[in-house]
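QA checklist item 7 of 12: single-chain prediction sanity check.
[x] sequence parsed
[x] length recorded as 209
[x] structure emitted
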Amino acid sequence: MFTGIVEELGTVDSIEHQGDAIRLTVRAGLVLEDVGLGDSIAVNGCCLTVVTHDGELWTADVMQETLDKTSLLGVKPGDRVNLERAVTADKRLGGHIVQGHVDGVGHVVSRTPSEHWEVVEISLPPGLAKYLVDKGSITVDGVSLTVVEAGPTAFTISLIPETLARTTLGHRQPGDRVNLEVDILAKHVEKLLDARLGALSESHEGAPS
């Protein structure tokens, strides 16, 4: 589990293609200070497992399922990536509850700069709009953000200078792909309501007329 607060920008060092998977090696610093084999690190919002590491590099295996459903399919050596270690119980929940399970890939539609922040519009894959509300939470490339305006096919976010400087979102351009994870609480509420409505429907169907 993560909080969507990016700890550092890492750099893709190498990619080894393995047919139905890749072995991704990332150069980093902070996230390797207390890392162990089997630990989880989010890369652009994708939860990956550390399989090797040394003082500057760590490696993860990325399966075809992950490549098919995230923007990791397009990464290449030299790309910067957002990194966050899994949260521990003694840490503040600075963002929101993030699983590192990408729900879909959106595209940057536009960027509108202002004096102190930048408004970014991002497209929504089919089926995700129902989980977004104005002032609700969403994770974009592993960054916990607040939705400014939620629409049926896109949403907007406001990025402060700190976010622009410390994450990949400062460099994403129109057309770039970004990983999206909606609020897990919204998905749980949906499932509970569906189950409740289904039970009510069955009870009405079985009631004597």
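[x] summary fact logged: The chain has a mean pLDDT of 92.
[ ] second reviewer sign-off
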